[in-house]
Hints:
Helices cover about 60% and strands about 10% of the residues.
Amino acid sequence: MxxxxxxxxxxxxxxxxxxxxxxxxxxxxxxxxxxAQWAVLAKIERTEGLKQSELAEQMEMQPITLTRxxxxxxxxxxxxxxxxxxxxxxNRLYLKKAARPxxxxxxxxxxxxTATALEGINPADAHRLLTQLDQIKExxxxxxxxxxxxxxxxxxxxx
Length: 159
């Protein structure tokens, strides 16, 4: 890799994300779904009964944007809104039976996308990369949640 980590890290990370999103969008279209709709389905699959407001927060999405996505997924017969038993203002989200075959296909697609992205990288290095990305995510999360007004104690140079 040419240049220093300091010069290339953020740019490369952003480019990888942008390219993966574009690739995932194009591939998801084969199943008549967008990447954003896929992300909503995947979250609901992991946590059925999630409140619509909780999902918006988890996905860092404006509630109105999420509402439109959910409307489309309901219209397609993949999810349903159910009222909350204790609070009638709350909608909880559940998968419908028709979503299960689609989610199976999307799981295969996810594996395909991952295999394409990690082609030529051995499994041990891929695991290491994922661990390192998780560490980066945690570092940034901590920096956002606990802003420090003083400079870092030790300076590390990456070159």
